[in-house]
Amino acid sequence: MIKSKKLQKFKNINHGFFNSTGGISSGIYKSLNCGMGSNDKKKNVIGNLKIVSKKIGIKKKLILLNQQHSNKIYLIKKTPKKKLSGDGLITNEKHVGIGILTADCAPILFFEPKKNIIGVVHAGWKGAYKKIVKKMINYFKKEGSKLNNIIAVIGPCISQNNYEIKNDFKIRFLNESHKNRKHFKTIRSKIYFDLRGYIFRQLKNAGVNNIEIIKKDTFNPKNNFFSARRSLKKKINDYGRNISIIMIK
């Protein structure tokens, strides 16, 4: 489990970016697979979710989403009766963990200590392109937060060196803004995208300056994260999911 240096300073919250180690799953899901959407045995995934909940100290419930690469965010005032579909959660409820699953996309944890509000976002290129980051910041503002008080931590995700894309992908982003050119590089006629940098710039453009980046590449097997792209490259038909969680004590 990786901790944020910025968030670790606050004693009234718990958080963690988990990789693939420390669980009970086996095979290609070894070992801390937290994705119910994978083809892993459900009892193993449930067991893994109990492990991470215990590590974070969740007393009530861990809320996860049916993630869709959307910009849909939910403000949690009470525990939902059914699983919600979207890619962001924000709450000020105590002892309720909110989490995001990733396998190369970027998990983003948010905390606003003055109002005691937390948030999580699943940001792949689609969600980021659909402005889920800006939408989350607007939620914080609606709840009375000031931009100067918001802390955002971009968690482990695929690095630019391993995020190869097609030219039509690049054109889509350049049509959005010519400034997006800085997030692409070409090496031997192959184009690579900097998801982390794109999200960082969106946070800055939204007025958030208190930002931390966890520079861990999920594609690199040495870091022990599940990676959709690495599985695809190895022609493996499924993969586990990493989990990132934050909770107010």
Question: Which helices and strands appear, and what pairs or packs with what?
Answer:
Layout lengths: L12 E5 L24 H15 L4 E3 L1 E2 L6 E4 L7 E2 L2 E4 L4 E7 L3 E7 L4 E7 L1 H5 L2 H11 L8 E4 L9 E2 L1 H10 L7 E4 L2 E4 L1 H11 L4 E4 L14 H6 L8 E7 L1
Parallel strand pairs: 2-7, 3-5, 4-6, 10-14
Antiparallel strand pairs: 1-15, 6-9, 7-15, 8-9, 8-10, 11-13, 12-13
Describe the structure.
- The strands form four sheets. The protein has a six-stranded mixed sheet.
- By secondary structure, the protein is an alpha/beta fold.
- It has six helices and 15 strands.
- The chain has helices at residues 42-56, 125-129, 132-142, 167-176, 195-205, 228-233; strands spanning 13-17, 61-63, 65-66, 73-76, 84-85, 88-91, 96-102, 106-112, 117-123, 151-154, 164-165, 184-187, 190-193, 210-213, 242-248.
- The two termini are 18 Å apart.
- Strand 8 and strand 9 (117-123) form a beta hairpin.
- The chain has a single domain, classed as CNF1/YfiH-like putative cysteine hydrolases (4-Layer Sandwich), CATH 3.60.140.
- The mean pLDDT is 97.
Q: Architecture, CATH level 2?
A: 4-Layer Sandwich
Strand content: 25-35%
Distance from first to last alpha carbon: 18 Å
Instruction: Find the CATH topology.
Output: CNF1/YfiH-like putative cysteine hydrolases
Q: Give the oligomer, counting copies of the same chain as homo and different chains as hetero.
A: single chain
Estimated helix fraction: 10-25%
Average pLDDT over all residues: 97
Assign the CATH superfamily: CNF1/YfiH-like putative cysteine hydrolases
Residue stretches low in confidence (pLDDT < 50, at least 5 long) are none
Please give the number of β-strands. Answer: 15
* CA gyration radius, whole angstroms: 17 Å
Biggest sheet strand line-up: 4-6-9-8-10-14
Q: Largest sheet, described in full?
A: 6 strands, mixed
Shape: globular
CATH class: Alpha Beta
